[in-house]
Amino acid sequence: MFRVLYLVHDLSDPAVRRRVLMLTAGGAAVTLAGFRRGENRLAEIEGVAPLEFGATADARFAQRLLAVAGAASRLPRLLAGLARPDVILARNLEMLALANRASRHFGGVPIAYECLDVHRLLLNTGLAGKALRAAERHFGRDARLLVTSSPAFVEHYFKPLSGIRAPAHLLENQVLELDGGETPIQTRTRPDGAPWRIGWFGAIRCRKSLDLLAAFTRHMEGRFEVVLRGRPARSEFDDFNGFVAREPYLRFEGPYRNPEDLSVLYANVDFTWAVDFFEEGQNSLWLLPNRLYEGCRNGALPIVLDGTETARLAMHLGVGVSLADARLDTLIDRFTSFDEAAYQALHANLVAAGPRPWILDRADCAAFVQRLAALRQPAEQTATPHPTPSLIASKVASEVNCHDR
């Protein structure tokens, strides 16, 4: 049996749950270990009970470093009794540091580095940024694979700035569908006079987006509403619950299960808010967020910002409502004349593209596990080229024309 030790910075992150489901569906036996983030409760994931290293907190980088250092000193005891893994998958830089220690503990195990966001500190031009990049280069020197979610991360960070020299494997934030069938995206009809609903689901961490949507919905006087679901990063907001409660056209409806609740979630909205300013000009330009794939798979059109990787993919398939810039006036102008005919024209493109660009199935899970399993071979036999935007565009185009895959 192929065994994966998955080290994560936040055991209750829904994306961690999705990755564990993906690994197990692909045939791997998974040991999940890492830190609890704040008060988030831990739970078994499909029978996988997590091994907890301690607690960390959002936006407290120094505390997280101390927690990692403490876990490193206790790692032999924490890992005692575990079966030797075939591969260690380390999510984020702090877990890459622990992966090196764990690899030595087990007598030398190949490491894959999973980096799905490029933190702003890694891009800092000062001493802090240089120190973090040096740490990434040091701890990643023996990594055999880089797993990342956007070709723009490779082009703009990993190639020119990072010290990671492992081959890159693109694993986008697509929706996990393990039941087969690839049910088609359905056409939609809307009740006459119903307000347009924008869904902002997942990690809610962008204060600029919240302010913009609040001002926009107030200006539109009920013609547009915003539904928020997921996990607010409360360290980024002064009073998230109070702010939303005071806004007449915003409502927060709590967390949800991913992927089980996605179809119902997105069936009740017309658009997905796929704009992000959290790390404006850097990570926000390059990422391909979960909500882009989730919304498109379930029939909600993405609202995107020109010049971003999100917009590139959405506009390539003709399914995005694009904004030229992030000004309130631009958002108002874009939607003042937006009508049912405009919506249906874009939605027809989404239906035509089908589910394939937005999902991962059991075959994709097996392919990823096989890619990890190949790390047990000599390094020169596992190398693959970095993906490029042109290659990814070709991949998307081919998938649009291969719905029967």
Short description:
The chain is α/β, with parallel strands linked by helices. Helix content is 40%, strand content 19%. The chain has helices spanning 14-25, 61-79, 93-105, 127-139, 151-158, 207-220, 240-246, 262-267, 283-286, 290-297, 309-316, 328-336, 340-353, 362-373, 379-382, 389-400, and strands at 3-8, 29-37, 51-56, 87-91, 111-114, 143-148, 168-170, 175-176, 196-204, 224-232, 250-252, 271-273, 301-305, 321-323, 359-360.
Could you please describe the fold and organization of this structure?
- The protein is an alpha/beta fold.
- It contains 16 helices and 15 strands.
- It has 2 domains: 216 residues, Glycogen Phosphorylase B (Rossmann fold), CATH 3.40.50.2000; 159 residues, Glycogen Phosphorylase B (Rossmann fold).
- It has a 7-stranded parallel sheet.
- α5 links the parallel β6 and β7.
- The longest helix has 19 residues.
- The relative contact order is 0.12.
- The C terminus is likely disordered.
